[in-house]
Amino acid sequence: MAYEDNCTIQLVFAICYELWTLRNKRCFDGITLPSPEMVSQRACAAVSSFNDASNFLQNQSYLPIPMPHSAVRWLPPCPGHYKLNVDAAGPDESGSWGLAAVVQDSNGVVMTAACWYHLSLPNSDAAEGLTMLLGVKFC
């Protein structure tokens, strides 16, 4: 596929994404829609930003990341039992947290998993505690 075709496809998808995002903001937040020129400018900026990041990553040398050796390892449950592992990540720039749970059998096979998005938690202890509660309820 030619370079120009890729650029056109990127721009079409970026415009579609901008329109979808603006439609949602209009429906749910009641914002006034910007001009078509502004939509086009935002789509072009998104494509440019994506391409810059892609070029940056392609030009990086991928050396292994040194990882400290840890004695902590995941241990499977006894045969016939399941193990629930939970974790929380965040907060992001808006103060939101990502919460996740995974259930594995004694062979390490993932039986089920879930994730949640929580808008505001006071600290990581509260996030971890809520994740444990949601994980147990999920099970």
Task: Report on the biggest sheet.
Answer: 3 strands, antiparallel
SS strand fraction: 15-25%
Query: Which of globular, elongated, flat, extended, rod-shaped describes the shape?
Result: extended
Residue share in helix: 40-55%
Mean pLDDT: 88
Summarize the structure in short:
With about 140 residues, the chain is of the alpha+beta class.
Structural write-up:
The chain is α+β, with helices and mostly antiparallel strands and 139 residues long. It folds into two domains: 3-58, no CATH class; 83-138. It is built from three helices and three strands. It has a three-stranded antiparallel sheet with strand order 1-2-3, with helices on one face. Strand 1 and strand 2 form a beta hairpin. Helix 1 (3-29) crosses helix 2 (36-58).
Keywords:
3 helices, three-stranded antiparallel beta sheet, extended, 2 domains, 139 residues, alpha+beta
Helix/strand layout:
Elements: H1 3-29, H2 36-58, E1 83-89, E2 97-104, E3 110-118, H3 124-138
Antiparallel strand pairs: 1-2, 2-3
Helix pairs in contact: 1-2
